[in-house]
TrEMBL record, chain A:
Domain FeoB-type G residue range list: 12-178
Source species, domain of life: Bacteria
Membrane topology (UniProt): Multi-pass membrane protein
Chief place where the protein resides: membrane
Keyword Repeat: no
PANTHER family: FE(2+) TRANSPORTER FEOB (PTHR43185:SF1), FERROUS IRON TRANSPORT PROTEIN B (PTHR43185)
Transmembrane segments: 285-306, 341-365, 385-408, 420-444, 456-479, 517-536, 657-677, 689-709
Function: Probable transporter of a GTP-driven Fe(2+) uptake system.
Protein name per UniProt: Ferrous iron transport protein B
Chain's gene name: feoB
TrEMBL record, chain B:
Keyword hit for Iron: yes
Alphabetical keyword list: Iron
Matches recorded under InterPro entries: Fe-transptr_FeoA-like, FeoA, FeoA_core_dom, Transcriptional_repressor_C
Name the UniProt record assigns to this protein: Ferrous iron transport protein A
PANTHER family: FE(2+) TRANSPORT PROTEIN A
Domain annotation Ferrous iron transporter FeoA-like: ranges: 1-72
Source organism (scientific name): Algoriphagus aestuariicola
Length: 710, 73
């Protein structure tokens, strides 16, 4: 009956892991592959392709972790991928074996997908995971009954507590997978002659594959347009309601599964009562109070913990740059290395502590089961803005850093809700905006207490955060009216039981997310920082040379250290003013004059396209503040003395400072975020649209602010 | 009646899933005629509802629960 596949293989065996969401699939994937994981792309979709290699008894296996799905009906991108890999669609190499993971306490739902896999004719083995939960629920599974009914090997594990995992390795190494006879007869729901035609046309192995092809091939871009037309014509000719057939298939399947489960499962108690934790966490008032408290705790921790490694990284890269410029002979190449490449790499690495910590916390919230409760609580408040309950995660992350936020948006299955979330997340006031806000507020808002307890500076800062949030929801609402999709938005999610997080999985998530960011976004960021460096370091050669000579000439008769530093700082300032970026700054002056900025601020706007916090250091260079950049007071005093050549007033008066802050609140000045958006949306279209809309918003916001205040 | 009108902490037996593009999603999650569901939690202001069905707690929007025809038991 069942055919064992023990044939000797010359190539590396590919094994696909399949299962419902929340069944511990990633724990088993992590156990098998450790850190030997790779994240790639599937053509045409945004789902990541997670592969890894496992060494078992000296042999290498390629493990493919498919996204969690409930069925092979491709409703979402995740399911389209599972469908595409497991059916023979030529775009993806078919795995040699399939390891299906089932939650022991959700047997029927897992068997539904397993039975579809059996009908596809894959080499299958089933793991009954979460044995501990089943035990807690007083469920007893007779594995032998299941084996008899399904005809594929069955294994019981408790991956969370590391039980039974050795047996999984043995099963893989012995290739103990079986191709079972069909589970249901698809001819019961679809006319056989139609299926036979599809089967022979696409050279498929069985009628269920043919059914999948005719049901979904018309929507799968992996099928050639000609074939799609052929399939549509066939479906039309037979005047057959395929949608009805799918519902019928589901009914027949579940009927048979219920019979099996009745035999194989003994329940010793009644269904669970309400969980006492949910009474608090899902409470209409306390639920929100707890959610906000957890958020505050997380941000507090991120800001405290991340600042140490960030300072360390900052210092380390400054030291490397300094060492390179002193150790290597001076020249364009050394300067490119010391002032362009090294700070560029530093600009990528500096984000790692925040990304790793944020993803660590998100993994803990996810793993404990709390995250789905947050989605439950927030869905109602997100929907009027075209967002999903799941959008809360990216938005909340955005307060620390938009990068992990954008990366977290992939869990949203509806295209429109996902795009809106990605597009608006960078409007949340991230931590990189803080240095800019703090300097400008310190410059223009008096440090006074009003009404007895309200500090005006704190109030101004709070106002900027609120402005970001207003921007987020206002823009989301507009995008909801603009973007169109035929996909129906739905919630339909499981609230899994509360569990202790698996620390090793949390660690691997932190590592993998940071690695993805460095590898994928790092290239773009590095390229842009080199371009910006070239623009800021070079200008028309004759003018640049003249400034250098003048500087040297002035230095000749000076011996006082402070004076030397002053002259050098002034020379650097002149050089920047006359560089290509300086020329660009002057060129955009007419455009930014209505916002209250002069061309010097224009230069800072351009350089801080790399990252917002660059504003501070550019200001320091332009206003020739030599010495210690860390000394915030020096910068503030210098800025306070500046006179705007156009108006004759102070450059940083209240109107200009607030106009600048509003500009920074809205503008897309973070190439790292752009690089991540490009990665998540698989193209330059959306990051471009995002940059344009955010720039327009920033410009208009700043214009209105300046015109009102001046 | 439909599941969205079940009172809190009350149970219903599923009679049928009404036609809609989400019908297949509900069915593959196990919402099938004959199953017993109990409304355990309600998010405020017309937010999602959480039903206990066998061993699982499932969150649905009100509009999704309205697709499940039940009789109260």
């Amino acid at each position: 009956m069942a055919e064992t596949t023990l044939s000797p293989k010359t190539h590396t065996s590919r094994i696909a892991l399949v299962g419902n969401p929340n069944v511990g699939k990633s724990t088993i994937f992590n156990y098998l592959t450790g850190l030997n994981q790779k994240i790639g792309n599937y053509p045409g979709v945004t789902v990541d392709k997670k592969t890894g290699s496992a060494q078992i008894n000296g042999e290498t296996f390629e493990i493919l972790d498919l996204p969690g799905t409930y069925s092979l009906f491709p409703n979402s991108e995740d399911e389209i991928i599972a469908h595409r890999v497991l059916n023979h669609t030529k775009l993806e190499a078919k795995p040699d074996h399939v390891l299906m993971i089932v939650d022991s306490s959700q047997l029927s739902r897992g068997l539904f997908l397993a039975s579809q896999l059996i009908d596809l004719g894959v080499n299958l083995a089933v793991i009954l995971n979460m044995a501990d939960l089943a035990q807690k629920n007083n469920l007893e599974i007779k594995a032998y009954e299941l084996f008899k009914a399904l005809g594929v090997p069955i294994l019981s594990t408790d991956a969370r507590n590391q039980k039974g995992l050795e047996e999984v390795k043995n099963l893989i190494s012995q290739r103990n997978f079986h191709r079972a006879p069909g589970f249901i007869d698809i001819q019961q729901v679809v006319p056989v002659d139609m299926l036979e035609q599809v089967k022979s046309k696409f050279e498929l192995e069985n009628l269920y594959q043919a059914y999948q092809m005719i049901r979904f091939g018309t929507r799968d871009k992996a099928v050639s347009p000609d074939d799609r037309t052929w399939l549509e014509a066939l479906a039309q000719k037979s005047e057959f309601d395929l949608e009805e057939a799918q519902l019928e298939e589901t009914k027949i399947r579940y009927k048979k599964i219920t019979e099996i489960v009745t035999k194989a499962l003994t329940k010793k108690t009644e269904p669970k009562p309400k969980s006492s934790l949910d009474r608090i966490f899902l409470h209409p008032i306390w639920g929100y109070v707890i959610f906000i408290s957890i958020l505050l705790l997380i941000f507090q921790t991120i800001f405290t913990w991340a600042s140490y490694p960030m300072d360390l990284i900052d210092g380390l890269f400054a030291d490397i740059s300094g060492w390179i410029s002193s150790a290597l002979p001076d020249g364009p190449l050394t300067r490119l290395l010391a002032e362009g490449v090294i700070p560029g790499i530093g600009g990528v690495v500096i984000f790692i502590p925040q990304i790793a910590l944020l993803f660590g916390f998100l993994a803990i919230l996810e793993d404990t089961g709390y995250m789905s409760r947050v989605v439950f609580l927030m869905d109602r408040w997100m929907r009027p803005f075209g967002l999903h309950g799941k959008s809360i995660v990216p938005l909340v992350s955005g307060v620390a850093c938009a990068i992990p936020g954008v990366m977290a948006a992939r869990n949203i299955s509806n295209w429109k809700e996902k795009m809106i979330t990605i597009l608006i997340t960078p409007l949340m006031s991230c931590s990189a905006r803080l240095p800019v806000y703090i300097i400008l507020i310190g410059l223009t808002v008096p440090d006074e207490v009003v009404l007895g307890f309200v500090n005006l500076q704190a109030l101004a800062l709070l106002g900027l955060y609120l402005l970001g949030i207003i921007g987020v929801f206002g823009t989301a609402f507009l995008l909801k009216l603009i973007l169109k999709t035929s996909e129906k938005s739905f919630l339909l999610s499981e609230l899994p039981p509360y569990r202790i997080p698996r620390w090793s999985d949390v660690g691997i998530t932190m590592f993998e997310k940071s690695k993805t960011f460095v590898m994928e976004a790092g290239k773009v960021i590095l390229a842009i920082s080199i371009v910006l460096w070239v623009l800021a370091s070079y200008g028309p050669p004759s003018r640049m040379e003249q400034i250098r000579q003048e500087g040297l000439a002035r230095l000749e008769n000076v011996s006082d250290e402070t004076q030397i530093a002053e002259i050098e700082a002034e020379t650097n300032s002149h050089l920047l003013e006359n560089s290509f970026i300086g020329i660009m700054g002057r060129a955009i002056e007419p455009a930014i004059k209505p916002l209250g900025y002069d061309w010097k601020i224009g230069i800072a706007l351009i350089t801080s396209f790399a990252a917002r916090e660059v504003f501070v250091s550019t200001m320091a260079t332009i206003y020739s503040i030599g010495g210690d950049l860390e000394d915030e007071l020096t910068i503030r005093e210098k800025l306070d003395q500046q006179i705007n050549a156009n108006t004759g007033e102070k450059t940083f008066n209240t109107a200009t400072a607030f106009s600048l802050m509003v500009f920074y609140a809205f503008a897309m000045q973070c190439m790292s975020t752009l690089a991540v958006v490009k990665r998540e949306t698989k193209g330059w279209k959306w990051p471009l649209i995002q940059t344009i809309y955010m720039s327009v918003l920033a410009y208009l916001g700043a214009l209105i602010t300046y015109q009102i205040l001046s | 009646m439909t599941a969205d009108t079940l009172p809190l902490n009350k149970s219903g037996k599923i009679l049928e899933i009404l036609p809609s593009p989400l019908k297949i999603n509900l069915m593959e999650l196990g919402f099938l005629p004959g199953k017993k569901i109990t409304l355990q939690h309600l998010a405020p202001s017309g937010g999602p509802m959480a039903f206990q069905m066998e061993e699982t707690l499932l969150a649905l929007r009100k509009s999704e629960a309205a697709l499940i025809r039940v009789e109260q038991i």
